[in-house]
Every structure is written in C-alpha cells, then in structure tokens.
Amino acid sequence: MSQFTAVPVPKAETVQISLTAPNQVKLSGTITQKDPAQDLAGLFKALHTAAMADKLAEVRADVSGLTFVNSSAIRLFVDWATWVKNERGHRYTLRFVTSRNVTWQKTSFMALMSLAKEVLAIEHVT
Amino acid sequence: MRPGDGGILTGRTLVRVICTAGSGALEYTHAFVSAYTADHLRGAIAQRLSVGAYELLSNALNFGSISSDIVIELIESESMVGVRVSNDAIAARVSMLTEHLLKLKTNAEQTFLEELRRSVTGGIPRPMLGLARVAHEVGLALDLQVQERRISMTAQCRR
Q1: Interface test mutation site (partner A, options B49, B109, B120, max chain A beta carbons within 10 A)
Q2: pLDDT: is B124 or B95 the higher one?
Q3: What is the per-residue pLDDT across B48-89, written as a single tens digit (0 to 9) for each?
Q4: What is the domain partition of chain A in residue ranges?
Q5: Chain centroid offset of residue A7 CA
Q6: What's CA A41's distance to the chain center, in Å?
Q7: How far are the Cα atoms of A108, B14, B25, B79, B90 from residue B17, in angstroms, in the given order?
Q8: Which ipTM was obtained for this model?
Q9: Which runs of consecutive H residues, i.e. helices, occur in chain A?
Q10: CB contact at 8 A, B151 and B89
Q11: Which residues pair with B71 in a beta bridge?
Q12: CA distance A3 to chain B (A)
C-alpha cells in the first residue's frame, strides 16, 4: 500500500493541497502566512519520508497554481530539495511542475536547480 | 533596470496604510495593497509590486521597532511606480540593510543565490532572502532613506 497517498493533508487557510496521484502533490492558491512551516514543513517531510519508503523514482510537486508565496515558503521548497539531495543510496527525482506565467516560480526554481540539480527536475505546464 | 531607476521616488501617493505589529498585520495589509495594485496597475507590474510590498512589510514587522507605526505607501510618478515602507529601526539594523543593499546592487542574482543557500544552512545574520527576491526575482530597484531612527525602503520600477 502506498504510504505517499496515505500522508494526511493539512488544512491551510490560503493554500489548497491535494495528493492527486501515488507520487504527486498539488498546491494552489497563495502562501502568505508569516510562518508557513507550521502547516507545510511537516507535510513536505512526511511526503519525503513516504516517497523514500515507497521507493518512488519520482515525486511530482505541482506548484503551477501557486500564484504568490513568501520567502519563508521558498525556504520550505529548498529544504525539501536538500533532504532528497542528502539521502544516501536510493533517492527520487523531485519534479516541480511550474508555470512560466508566475514570476516567483521562474527565478526561484531556476536558482534551486543550481543548488540541487542532481535530484531536481523542472517542468513547465504553461 | 535602467540607470536612475534606483533614485528617490517622488510623486502621487495612491494609497497609504498605517499598521502596527500584530496578528494578521502582514497578511491583511498585503492582501489589501495587492488587491489595490491589481485593480489599478498592469498585471505584471501589480504582481511585482505585490512581492515588493510583502517582503518590505515583512522586514519592517520582523526587524523594526514594535513601538512605532509602520506605513506602507503605493506611489506613482510619471514614469515610475513603487511601494515604500517606513518604520523605526535601530542603528545596527540600518547598517545591515545598507550593506545588504550594496550587495544587491552589485549582483542581485548572486546575492539571491547566496541567501537561498544560507536559508538552508542558517547562520548569523539571519538570511535575508526577502529583499533579494525583490531585487532579483521581480527586478524592483531598492532605495533606502534614513532620517534618525526612521527608515524608508522603496521598491520601484518603470510603469
């Protein structure tokens, strides 16, 4: 049984989160709360742990509908990429599905690629 | 950015919001300013100013003196539009900001990357990714004005 799809999804005020496939999480809306780690750090860690347990080859994080995030939220994506990068042995590719029309996604994920390119992939949907 | 884009922005104040530190101050003020910019400015510029407004306000709330008001203004001149946040700050904060702005003016992309790296490793002073986003990600020119304890940070771009 997939541990990934069994990860409980928190209810956050401005961001909608759903697990849309055995290896895909979708986030949309905005992340403006001062400390988004309260809602999201635990989720990302749980998804990472589950992906490792499921021995997934790839995890897709669809953020194309996230129109605004603050810098604290960007740090959470950096953390997730760092966890994957620091894994020894099996590790999965973390694929961020992004939109070219959303400014923060272009620069942030390009920069993130330069920090952890061996475990990241970026896909543009629009 | 073009030469002169980082000069002092003077012009008409479109909206001015005074807020104090407290629960929801950042989220609600940002939501209001963003809605206003979205209604009154072109989409791409509104998006850029929304990031500027959030990060400048966040800085003021996180690092400014809590005993004074924080003022956020949306200002337009004939050629420029920008967001300005004013608050009280201690001298050490002003030095830190001045140094950070110098790094951003020299190489915004490199500074953004460094701050992103530092946000993983931590360290002192705390990572300042917010202003790096404003300069690199949304390409707004940053300008800091200091008058005794009162500081005003402006993020602006061409209309």
Answers
A1: B120
A2: B95
A3: 999 999 999 999 988 777 778 899 999 999 999 999 999 999
A4: 15-124
A5: 14
A6: 10
A7: 29, 10, 11, 23, 22
A8: 0.81
A9: 37-53, 71-86, 103-116
A10: yes
A11: B18, B86
A12: 27
| Cα angle for residues B61, B80, B150 (degrees, 5° grid) | 30
CATH, range A15-124: 3.30.750.24
- Asked if the C-beta of B119 comes within 8 angstroms of chain A's C-beta atoms, the answer is yes
pTM greater than 0.95: no
Largest CA distance in chain B: 43
Residue count (chain A): 126
Question: A107: which chain B residues are within 8 Å (Cβ-Cβ)?
Answer: 112, 133, 136-137
Cβ B85 vs Cβ B56: under 8 Å: yes
- For residue A53, give the nearest of A1, A95, A121 by alpha carbon: A1
Could you tell me how far CA A20 lies from the centroid of its own chain? Answer: 13
Residues 87-116 of A with CB under 8 A from B: 103-104, 107-108, 111-112, 114-115
Question: Would you say A103 and B47 are in contact if contact means Cβ atoms under 8 Å apart?
Answer: yes
Nearest residue in B to A114, CA atom: B113
Select from B28, B47, B109 the residue whose CB has the most chain A CBs within 10 Å, as the one to mutate to test that interface. B47
Q: What is the least distance, in Å, from the CA of A32 to any CA of chain B?
A: 6
Predicted confidence at residue B128, as pLDDT, reads 83
Delineate the domains of chain B, giving CATH numbers in brackets. Answer: 12-158 (3.30.565.10)
